[in-house]
Amino acid sequence: MNKAIKSWCTFIAAICLFCGASAGLKRQSADAAESSHITETAIVKNNLAGAPTVVSRLDDAGMLSSLSQTKIPANLIMTMNGDGNIVGKSGEIIGKFTELYKTYVEAVMIPVVEVNEEAAADKLIEIWNEEIGIIDMAAMSSSSSLLKKVRTALPKIRGVYDCSDKALADGPSWYQQIKNANLSMANVVVLSQEQATVESVKYFQYRLKTVWTELDADKTDTFAVQSVVSTGTYGIISSDFKTVYAAYDEYEKPSVARISANIAHRGLPYTMTENTIAGYKAAAEAGATHIEADAHLTKDNQVVIMHDATLDRTTNGTGAISSMTLDEIQKYKVTKNMNKVELGEEPIPTAEELFREFKGTDIVIVFEIKTGDTNICAALEEAIEKYDFWNQIVIISFNLPILKAVHEQLPAIPTASLAGFPRRNFEKNLPAYNQLNTVADASIGDMGEADYYDSIMKDRGFMSFFWTYGVSQDCVQAMSKGIYGLTNNSADVFGEERVGSLYGKEGQQAAKSDLKRNAKITLVKQTYEGIEKEVTGTVFAVKDCGEYAEVIAYLTEAEDLLYTPAFRVNYKDETASDRQSDSPSVKGCGSVAFEGTLGKSLGILFLAASGIFVLLSKRKNY
With left for phi above 0 and alpha for psi between -120 and 50, is residue 186 left, alpha or beta? Predict the structure, then answer.
């Protein structure tokens, strides 16, 4: 930005801050009253179902004037120093946090305050307690210890853990950051554009950690945005939020931002015995990404897998689980599905048997604690530790005291509340959920409030996990709305029929002139079950990289447009006549080449000029 323009923007910003302060901003000496008011973030419509929430950084004072537009970010990251000032990326002071918040942010954007030094963390705690008391905000840090300090002192706000400077190469390193995030009471993690792949984003989000991806500041264009969208990320961080919105506007209806998780509810409860190892294995083989299992505690403190508190409905025995020992319970067998249809006999499993069966697989266990007995936490910890199952389990429950016990006794395990997140209760319940560091796994009965889940919830880092879908078609319809976590009773049918992953075929070549939007290209689709098939897709976006192009394509599946991550397509050698008709191009990914109408026009001008030169030469010879 021109120095004179930047100085002028800074001057205008200072005047606005002075006016905002003069209009009634008061610094209180006593503790600030807590404000539970929920910010009404802008609902920006586009054709991309489940479009990532837009997050921006306040890099300099010149950005302030752009925050009054119609399309503004839902979240604004502001970096605080030890004096309570917000500083830009070059370290310059932009203004006091409280004044910036009152003048620019309040009621229109969610503040995310970044603290990366001890003094800044202490100052944020002080300002929150004495001046603002905003519950609808988040603290962010790349230091898990600093973030934990802030979240422990301010448990009613949310946490964002920045992993963008961490070494993230594979599953073990990804899990370590999930653990760090949970221990620091954060349910949103920030990845860099380089770190965010389909695999890494899926790993985090399958374990209830929402991913926000930060774009490289010097590489932000619509292709970069769309490439990050294709990873499945739930948020995009960029100071150039206009470009993010412009990239979203290029999607055609009905586009879907991410492929959903296929969560097998009680295994395959329609066709197999409910909550049995046999049912779980069949679900996993048919393409389930998660197994949802229910648990109770026996009289002798063993964790048993069963939905009901008694044996009566699904087994050939009777009695309350809590009043029986494990040996007494395992004399009986599971004989029925969820509809009480007799299907043969299967053993009543324990948590240990479940963990032993799926240890080392890609399956994540969604472990629902049905009992209200908090002693189950110690028994569960013992089973998890025995099989080192920490990286494959999340815990859900309707019972808030249970979630509190898990938070206190098993703090490394991500959790979700099943208690429902209807809009009418959100403002009231948000502080309690933040204190437990739990997220939402909501009833499909609450899905009627589409804008609420696609903006208010999403903008605060809550992913859309819902229960319980009946048949495969219900899952297809939910995915078309951008719903991410599909707890369902037909994981096998959905897994066999639906695309679980989509990518471009490796080693493809194409003429440069043919690689354009709406051109056909070869893709590989893989069902959740793992069956691969080559299919014809459609080019959505192309980035010229000199000797090759990066391409994003889509496949129409059940009327939805599903997108690939960016993939490489090498340019074919073209004929001499083809090359002569091409305009010169500059090598380098993203460079601009003379193509299309402009290239043709330049070619025509060149030919015309050549013709005139020839005519003049002939006249001279006469």
Answer: beta
- Residue 115's nearest CA partner among 66, 71, 82 is 82
The answer to whether residue 265 is catalytic is: yes
- Listed in sequence order, the DSSP H helices in 436-482 are 450-451, 458-459, 472-480
- Determine contact, residues 330/347, Cβ cutoff 8 Å: yes
Q: What is the pLDDT of residues 520-568, one digit of tens each?
A: 999 999 999 999 999 999 999 999 999 999 999 999 998 899 999 999 9
- Given the residues 265, 290, 296, 407, the one annotated as active site: 265
> What are all long-range contacts of 593-601, with beta carbons under 8 Å and residues at least 24 apart?
593/544, 595/512, 595/513
How do strand 333-336 and strand 342-347 relate by DSSP bridges?
Answer: antiparallel
The tens digit of pLDDT for each residue in 400-432 reads 999 999 999 999 999 999 986 778 888 888 999
Tell me the torsion sign for CA atoms 452, 265, 390, 231: negative
Backbone torsion region of residue 116, taken as left when φ is above 0, otherwise alpha when ψ lies between -120 and 50, otherwise beta: alpha
CA atoms within 13 A on the CB side of 535: 21
Please state whether beta strands 485-488 and 465-469 pair in parallel, antiparallel, or not at all (unpaired): parallel
DSSP 8-class letter at 3: H
- 186 vs 144: CA distance, rounded Å: 9
Q: Which helix (H) or strand (E) holds 188?
A: strand 188-192
Active-site position among 290, 296, 307, 407: 307
The C-alpha angle 440, 53, 257, rounded to 5 degrees, equals 85
Would you give the DSSP letter of residue 174? Answer: H
The Cβ-side half-sphere exposure at 559, using a 13 Å CA radius, reads 8
Query: 365 in helix, strand or coil?
Result: strand
Read off the tokens for 582: 């091409």
